[in-house]
Amino acid sequence: MANKIIQHSRIIFYISTSFVTAFCGISAFAKPELHRKENKQLDQLIHKRDDTANQPSALNNPEADPDINPSQELLLGGVNKYLDQYGIQLGLSWLTETAGVINGGKKKGVDYAHQIAFSIDMDWEKIIGWKGFSTHAMVLNLAGRNASKDYVGDSQIQAQEIYGGGYDRVLHMNYFYGLQKLWDDKVEIRFGRDSVGNNFALSPFACQFMLIATCGQPRSIQSQQGFSPWPGTVWGAQIKYNISKSTYFKVGAYESSPWGTGKGGPTGLKWGVKAATGAYVPVEFGYNSNFGKNHLNGYIRIGAGLDTSKFETWSSKATGSGKRDHTSQYWVMLGQMIYRNDQVKDHGLYVIANWGHDSPLTANYKDLYNIGFLDRGFWHARPYDQIGLMMTYYTVPRGLSRAQEYQINNGLVTQTNGIFGGLINGAPGIQTNSMLFEANYSIAVYRGVMIMPVFEYFHNVAATRSTYKDATVLGFRTNIIF
Length: 482
Description:
By secondary structure, this protein is an alpha+beta fold. It has helices at 2-30, 40-50, 77-83, 124-128, 147-152, 219-222, 314-319, 398-409, and strands spanning 88-105, 109-123, 133-144, 169-182, 187-194, 234-241, 247-256, 278-291, 296-312, 324-340, 348-358, 367-376, 386-395, 414-416, 419-421, 433-446, 449-459, 469-481. It comes from Commensalibacter nepenthis.
C-alpha cells in the first residue's frame, strides 16, 4: 500500500513539474526584449499603481486592450460610471462550474452548478455626507448538482467550489453589512450580516481554482461551524487597524451556528439567533509585500480563531459518552510574486502556500496544506490569460479514524460492496489522508468574459485508501461579469 501511495504521489509530482517547466518556458520565450530593459519611468508607474485601486493598465503592453480584460464589466461599466457620482455601484455576475469523472471515483458522470450574484454598494459620504461610511449587500441564485457527491464519492472536497455552500435556492441573501472608516482610514469597523470568510484567511488567489480545497479559504478552516464561509452569513463585527501602509491587525466576533438552522437558513433571510450555540472570535495579522525595483507584490496572513461553542468529540459520537469540547483553528497563508512578466501590477509568476490546523478532538480535518503557482501575463500576445497549478494534502484526526474503526468493529454500520453506510463524518470508509491536484488555464475571451478548462485528480478519495479508485476529473468553468 505504501508503495502504491508513493507511486501515485510521484505521478502527480511529475505532472505538476512538467506543467511548471512548460509554462515557465513559455513565459521566458514570450517576453520581448522591452521587458528586460530597465525603465525608470515604468518603475514609477508601477509604484503609483501599487498605491491605487487595482485597475487595468497597459503600461508596458500595448496589446493589453481593456476590451479583452475579463475583470472589467461587460455591460454595466457605463452605468456604474454614471452612478458613481451618486455613491452607488451595481454588480452582476454569472459563474458556472461543470465537472465530470472520466476515470475512477464512484462512477462516471457530469454535473453542472452555477451562481448568479447581484450586489449593490452605497457610499453614504457621497449620498448624505456621512464621512467614511458605506453599506454593501449581495443576493445569490444558486443551482445545480454536486459532482463530488454524485460521481467522485468524496465527502470532504467538492470538485466544484461553487457548490460548497450546499444550497440550491432561487434566492439566497449572502451578506448585508456596514463599513465605517475612521482616522484617515487607519481604523475600519465592519458590522452586520456577514461571514468570517469574507474577512479572515482571505486570499486574492484562493478562488482562481475550482476545487474547494482552497476557495475561498483552505478547506479545513471553512469546514468548521464557527468559521462561517460563503454563502452562509451570521451576525458579526470586526475591527481592523492598519498599522502601516503594508501591515494590519484585526479581530472579530461572530455568531456560531450550524448550517441549516443557522447561518441565515436556506434563503439567508432568517436573521434570528435562536440557532446560535456560541461565538467565534478570530484574530489575524497581515503583511502586504512590495519587493525591489520590479515591485514584486504579495501577502502573508497569520491568524487563529476560537469557537466558544462545545461540540461532541469523535469518540463521543461513536460511543455515546457525551464528551464535548471547544474547537480552535490556526492558519498561515502566503502568496508572493517571484517573477514579474510585465509592468501591469498583478502580472507575474506567483507562488501560493497555505497551512490550516484544526482541533483534532472535534474537527473533521487535522492539518491541510496547499502549494501552488499562478502565472498572469506570461504570454505577451494574450496578456489576460493565466495558468494555475495547485497541490493539496490533508490529514484527518486520528480520533476520527479510531471512532470509525470502533463503529465497524462493533457492527454499528452497514456495508455494501465495500462501501460503509452510517459512518460518522459521512465517510464511505475509514479516513486517514488525501492528496489532490488541480491544473487550469484561464482564457480571456472578451471584456468581462473568462472561460477555464480544468483538470483535477483525487488521490485517496474522501481520505479513504481502499473505498474508491483515484478519480480523474475534467471540468469547465465560465465567469461573466456583467
